[in-house]
Structure to design on (407 residues):
């Protein structure tokens, strides 16, 4: 009897401790699972940077969005789903984009959203960087946490996938400690807990203005060029592009089957980003990719009898994408960009307004359909030449950076 009482006491103690720990972690919510951000307590969740895929998958399941925004970190940082431009589509709005997203991950998030609730609008930011990766998904992406499996079968117990890792593990306990510490130090939430929008402009401002925008531009470009240094336009790379275009088709088919309207766009990267592709030898592949993307979108909308669905290209040289980057040491903030890859909310507002049917006065954005792509590319070449004549030092700086990396 005594041994039984001891065992019961021991088990009760263990259960109590585990329940207390799990409850405390739940309240602190370091992974954004409870969608609660209390100033000075848990509004800063640093783990969202490393657990974004978990956070966004759960956010979609929890919100069952009527409006879904997907893409990579450019969409995550630049496109606010609470934008007035999207007011015509009532219901929950979620930005499910995340950094270094792949075409496969975008497809699976759309399938997840379609299985979680009634989609009315899907906004997809397809960028060149989402295509051609050696792996279909990143290490922290998991199919088993989504509402529907890759083969189309429902996964009703998907919500249990990460319970232990995010409630009863040493890493979760450490994440809770980090969240408390960061939140007490102050600052805005890293992301809106209800929409997933990465609205932490204070942090971006700090990074951009510490040494000036140009220093941030150069640092990001150095990282990108170093990572992509071995890129080669060979048969294996082309096969990966073809694979990812199949994911584009499946993404569109899913959105159409859900009865949603679809908007597709290529993000407004700064003109300097095109210079990175030039020194890497990517320009021909980029043109082929854009041509194939436009064709794939048109093919799928025709297959289901949808009206013309252009791919809006916001990366073309314009007053937005050729904004002058302040000289080195100048801490004057840029209006449209944080650096050459990530655009600010003001730019995202123009993008969303155009996708919603409004026409900005400066004509920002070019609607691409298959028979207009070649003319568009010719116009791009002329616009790039005009930009280089106006700001001749930009291409030279990229060339010098590339030379320093490859020497």
């Amino acid at each position: 009897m005594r041994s039984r009482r001891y065992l019961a006491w021991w088990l009760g103690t263990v259960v109590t401790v585990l329940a207390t720990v799990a409850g405390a972690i739940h309240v602190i919510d370091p992974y954004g699972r409870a969608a609660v951000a209390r100033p000075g307590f848990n509004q800063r969740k640093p783990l969202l940077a490393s657990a974004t895929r978990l956070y966004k998958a759960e956010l979609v399941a929890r919100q069952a969005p009527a409006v879904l925004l997907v893409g990579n970190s450019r969409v995550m940082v630049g496109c606010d789903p609470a934008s007035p431009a999207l007011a015509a589509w009532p219901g929950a709005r979620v930005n499910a984009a995340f950094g270094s997203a792949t075409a496969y991950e975008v497809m699976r998030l759309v399938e997840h959203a379609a299985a979680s609730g009634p989609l009315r609008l899907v906004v997809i930011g397809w960028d060149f960087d989402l295509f051609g990766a050696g792996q279909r998904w990143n290490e922290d992406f998991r199919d088993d946490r989504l509402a529907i499996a890759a083969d189309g079968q429902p996964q009703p117990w998907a919500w249990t996938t990460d319970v232990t890792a995010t409630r009863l593990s040493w890493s979760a306990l450490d994440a809770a400690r980090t969240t408390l510490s960061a939140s007490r130090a102050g600052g805005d939430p890293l992301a809106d807990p209800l929409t997933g929008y990465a609205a932490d402009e204070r942090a971006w401002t700090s990074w951009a203005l510490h040494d000036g925008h140009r220093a941030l531009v150069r640092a990001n470009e150095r990282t990108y060029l170093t990572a992509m240094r071995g890129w080669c336009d060979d048969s294996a790379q082309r096969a990966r592009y073809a694979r990812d275009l199949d994911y584009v088709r499946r993404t569109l088919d899913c959105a159409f089957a859900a009865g949603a309207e679809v908007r597709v766009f290529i993000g407004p990267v700064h003109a300097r980003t095109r210079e990175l592709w030039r020194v890497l030898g990517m320009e021909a592949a980029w043109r082929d990719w854009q041509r194939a993307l436009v064709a794939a979108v048109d093919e799928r909308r025709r297959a289901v009898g949808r009206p013309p669905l252009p791919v809006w290209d916001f990366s073309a040289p314009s007053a937005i994408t050729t904004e002058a980057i302040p000289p080195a040491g100048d801490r004057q903030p840029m209006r449209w960009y944080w650096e050459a890859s990530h655009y600010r909310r003001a730019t995202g507002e123009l993008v969303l307004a155009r996708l919603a049917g409004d026409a900005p006065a400066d004509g920002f954005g070019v609607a691409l359909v298959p028979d207009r792509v070649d003319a568009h590319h010719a116009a791009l070449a002329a616009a790039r030449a005009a930009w280089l004549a106006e700001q001749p030092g930009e291409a030279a700086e990229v060339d010098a950076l590339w030379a320093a990396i490859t020497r």
Q: What stands out?
A: The chain has a mean pLDDT of 90. The chain is about 50% helix and 5% strand.
